[in-house]
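Lab meeting tomorrow. Look over both lines:
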Amino acid sequence: MTLSDRILRLAASAASAASAKKGEDILVLEVGQILAITDAFVITSGANARHVRTLAEAVEEGVSGDGGPKPLRIEGLDDARWVLLDYGEFVVHVFLDETRRYYDLERLWSDAPRADWEAALAARPAAGQ
């Protein structure tokens, strides 16, 4: 089973917003077959706490700007080492680089397929179509 078009579109919006703000090593993992509480993880990281906060804000604006919902909850903004934006159907993890290396979600969820968010963005119709 793969992500629904809607979830992939919104996850790709989150990833694109992070990319626009220089988020590092952005990926979308399809975790729905493994984890019953959400369908996808978007993972990115920033160089410092300020960058992490900027990435989290950009993701929230990007998803909202694409017609997506506001996060159900946001955790970790205080220390900005690991900010979690929970959208229900997908969760965005914005890490400080060293924190990402420590928790290594990519290894933990290595059996989850990776979604090609860049291809999903490229496949979208142009605005106004």
Remarks:
- The mean pLDDT is 93.
- The helical segments are 5-20, 49-65, 97-103, 105-108, 117-122.
